[in-house]
Amino acid sequence: MSDAAASPHGARVDLGALWIAPPLIALAVLFLYPLTLIAHAAVYDSGDALNLAAAWATLGSRAFVNALVNTAEIALASTAGSLALGLALALIIAFVPFPGATFVARLIDTFIALPTFLATLAFTFLYGSAGVLNGALMQSLHLADPPVHFLYSAWGVILAEVTVYSPFVLRPLLAAFSLVDRGQIEAASLLGARPWRIVRQVILPAALPAAIAGGSLCLLLTVNEFGIVLFIGAKGVITLPLLIYDKAIQESDYQAACVIAMVNVALSLGLFGLYRLAARRLGA
Predict the structure, then answer these.
(1) The model's pTM
(2) Which of 31, 138, 228, 279 has the fewest other C-beta atoms within 10 Å?
(3) Angle between helical axes of 62-95 and 254-283 (0-180°, round to 10)
């Protein structure tokens, strides 16, 4: 029997094309329909009347502008820190032979599977007001108040995000470093090139697509990070996801929350497109 069924008029219908229907239906129900509802709620008020003035007021508010700036600054700083730390760790693991290098790489990889709040919880125990560091300093220096307060600021959020998201840079860099021709490195070394020059002229060009892909993914994840910012509770540090939470849950201003959510979705889709572009280049 043929794979295609014949229609009453003799035309042949490709039944294989019907297999695309289930994933399209699932996508429409689980993603497109809720996104449509959010977009509708962003421009229509509770009485189902078009209210663009409220949407523009939200976008022009100081709270939204501050949240957008905070989100961009924290995401860019966290991504830069993740790139620097991931690159340093990848170079050491890949090119500095030491016992247990593979185990260390796999141990770092486990951070990807852990929930983000564990890093913030660990930092609270270490650097919080009642943490190990402040306790030791207060006892040794006979201080009445904790001297270390950086955890409850934007720097604490950045440090936590760098710790959590560096493995997303480390893993593609290690994969790229494994493809570097070791003969070129040996030849450059025999010709008298210093280690930093070898890294700059031989290793880094080969790893650039991997760094771009890992950095793009970190940027996407840090823009949408909610748990770390909420758990640390840094004073005055409000990002877009946290502002959406405040508007929807704390203030019950659902239209404002949906407006900010649409901006966050647009920003995320743009960054995801950048990540896919970098990933395709890496694959090529």
Answers:
(1) 0.79
(2) 31
(3) 30
Cα gap 200→208, rounded to integer Å: 11
Distance CA 108, CA 163 (A): 10
Residue 180 carries which side chain, given as an amino acid letter? V
Cβ atoms of 263 and 55 within 8 Å: the answer is no
Q: What are phi and psi of 280, to 5 degrees?
A: -65, -40
Element (H, E) at 13: strand 12-13
Q: Using CA atoms, how far apart are residues 37 and 33, in angstroms rounded to an integer?
A: 6
pLDDT digits (tens, 9 = 90+) for 2-59: 444 555 554 455 566 677 777 788 877 777 888 888 888 888 877 777 878 888 998 9
- Alpha carbon distance 234, 266 (integer Å): 26
List helix spans (H) across 18-61. Answer: 21-27, 33-43, 52-60
Going from the C-alpha of 92 to that of each of 18, 39, 96, the distances in angstroms are: 51, 47, 5
In a domain, 9, yes or no: no
The one-letter code for the residue type at 190 is L
Domain count of the fold of the chain: 2
Task: Give me the pLDDT at residue 62, please.
Answer: 93
State whether 109 and 211 are in the same domain.
yes
Report helix angle 167-177 to 62-95, nearest 10: 40
Q: Which residue has the tokens 């523009």?
A: 56
Distance CA 271, CA 163 (A): 21
2 occurs within a structural domain? no
Contacts of 192 (CB under 8 A, 6+ apart): none
Calpha distance 32→37 (Å, rounded): 9
Report how far residue 234's alpha carbon sits from residue 252's, in angstroms, rounded to the nearest whole number.
Answer: 23
Domain of 241, in residue numbers: 51-283
Phi, psi dihedral angles at 238 (to 5 degrees): -115, 120
- CATH no. for residue 251? 1.10.3720.10
